[in-house]
Design a protein that fits this description.
This is ABC transporter substrate-binding protein. There is one protein chain. The chain has helices at 3-24, 65-80, 93-106, 120-124, 178-183, 195-205, 235-246, 263-277, 290-295, 309-314, 349-364, 366-369, 379-382, 391-403, 413-428, 434-451; strands at 45-49, 54-60, 84-90, 112-116, 157-158, 161-162, 164-166, 168-177, 207-208, 224-226, 301-305, 320-323, 334-337, 339-342, 375-376, 404-405. The strands form 4 sheets. A 6-stranded mixed beta sheet has the order 1-3-2-4-14-7, sandwiched between helices. The protein is built from 16 helices and 16 strands. The chain folds into 2 domains: 31-167 and 338-364, D-Maltodextrin-Binding Protein, domain 2 (3-Layer(aba) Sandwich); 171-336 and 412-451, D-Maltodextrin-Binding Protein, domain 2. The protein is α+β, with helices and mostly antiparallel strands.
Length: 454
């Protein structure tokens, strides 16, 4: 079998597996989107920007207000480069991955696209990406490699070759309802230091219809009107950071064995479960809209990410402020990732030159991208952010440096995540015990790892 036929056969198998697994994944495990600016999840939101004859097609999964910000930047770009136009297709991340895999097989992919850093190995392993080493000053180009924050910049590499250009660091923190804190006699500028302090704080913030908090003997858990927090905004990454905080991990050090059912991981999921069913300070995930609940005052602390900035400021009347992650694990760990621009190796000639011009323009203007809520990848852009306009970017971004951790890079990370998501949902919706759920997740992950290397 030729290398090309082998690649096509492998990719067809991956697409089939991805399609089957995506059908079973709960929407709770996808990156959340803003309510007002939400774009379609199945059909791409297509926008043509500019009228230049040299047209670039660009696919991404920025379905929230961050996608609106990037399109606004692209409008500025084509104004400066009128010979170029950009057609963006924005579709939710899960659908995007399958769409990309199918497009590569058919030879009908975009001219450029955006993924997360931990997914770069999967696409690079297909042999469909352009080596971008020559775009950086270390390879004779103009992009300053040493201006990108680590470890996020490492996410643009695969087997020592740089295949992408990093756009940002984005990750987990929280937003709190300041009025709820003051009403409960709590200081919104004092953070809990451990799980016990977190539970005690959340009990004070959780109220029933009679005004009793969850620490009261008269508290009615069947009639809660205000929850202290939620565990259901992107369950997968919430679990990751709590598991890491307990000392657990998804995989063994050599990435050959699933360790998601270790005692440390089970304890992390048990603590999330207990917030719902033992302490009654978080709602059952099924059918609960976390962003809408925060905007109506039904949640005091919303664990979310940098992407929440515009929703908090523009789409709610809540007196809120950003916070670091809650210490549900024994140590505070903040999950973060990076968005990476990638270029298929089918983009050549004038198209490749235009794509390079666009990506270099965006990376030179990353301060504009901070308006999305994300933290610019370039250190020089981070240093230009002022606390008055970008408090959440700065506060949450600092946690990435202090105790942040990125998802592991792996050629089959999408399949592994698909194996985990439904099991976390099952545990937190009380369909399985945390131990049962993670045992089942480990078994499904191991099947993937035994079939192909990570």
């Amino acid at each position: 079998m030729s290398k090309r036929n082998a690649l096509v056969s492998t990719m067809i198998l991956l697409v089939m597996l991805s399609m089957m697994s995506f059908m079973s994944v709960s929407a709770q495990d996808e990156e959340p989107t803003a309510t007002l600016e939400t774009l379609p999840t199945a059909t791409p939101a297509v926008e043509s920007i500019g009228s230049g004859g040299l047209e670039i097609s660009f696919w991404n999964g920025l379905t929230g207000s961050d996608g609106v910000t990037l399109n606004a930047m692209l409008a500025d770009f084509v104004a400066e480069h009128p010979e170029i136009s950009v057609t963006t297709e924005i579709v939710e991340w899960g659908t995007l991955y399958t769409k990309l895999q199918t497009a590569f097989i058919a030879g009908e992919g975009p001219d450029m696209f955006l993924v997360h850093a931990n997914e770069v190995p999967q696409f690079a392993s297909y042999g469909v990406l352009t080596d971008l080493s020559g775009w950086y000053d270390t390879g004779g180009g103009t992009i300053p490699a040493d201006d990108f924050a680590q470890p996020g910049f490492d996410g643009a590499f695969y087997n020592g070759t740089v295949y992408g250009v990093e756009l940002d660091n984005h990750g987990r923190g929280a937003w709190v309802n300041v009025d709820h804190f003051e009403a409960a006699g709590l200081d919104p500028n004092t953070y809990p230091e451990n799980y016990e302090e977190t539970v005690a704080m959340l009990q004070q913030l959780t109220l029933d219809a009679n005004g009793n908090n969850a620490a009261s003997e008269d508290f009615d858990p069947e009639n809660i009107v205000q929850y202290g927090t939620t565990v259901s905004e992107w369950i997968y990454v919430q679990f990751l950071q709590y598991m890491w905080g307990m000392g657990g991990d998804l995989l063994s050090e050599d990435k050959t064995t699933a360790t998601i059912n270790s005692p440390e991981a089970v304890e992390a999921l048990q603590r999330m479960y207990d917030l719902i069913y033992t302490y009654h300070v978080a709602p059952v995930p099924a059918g609960f809209d976390t962003w809408q609940a925060f905007s109506t005052g039904a949640i005091s602390i919303l664990p979310t990410g940098t992407w929440f900035r515009n929703f908090a400021e523009d789409q709610t009347d809540i007196n809120s402020q950003p916070w670091p992650v809650l210490p549900i694990g024994d140590q505070r760990v903040s999950w973060f990732g990076s968005h990476i621009f990638l270029v298929p190796n089918t983009t050549t000639g004038e198209k490749l030159d235009a794509v390079r011009t666009l990506i270099e323009w965006v990376t030179e203007n990353q301060v504009m991208w901070a308006a999305s809520g994300q933290v610019p990848a370039r250190l020089s852009a981070q240093q230009q952010l002022d606390p008055e306009n970008y408090p959440s970017n700065i506060l949450i971004g600092q946690t990435f440096t202090e105790y942040g951790r990125m998802s592991p890079q792996c050629q089959v990370i999408l399949e592994l995540e698909d194996a985990i998501g439904p099991e976390l949902d099952a545990a937190l919706n009380d369909l399985k015990t945390p131990q049962q759920a993670l045992d089942d997740a480990a078994a499904r992950m191991q099947q993937v790892l035994d079939r192909t290397s990570c």
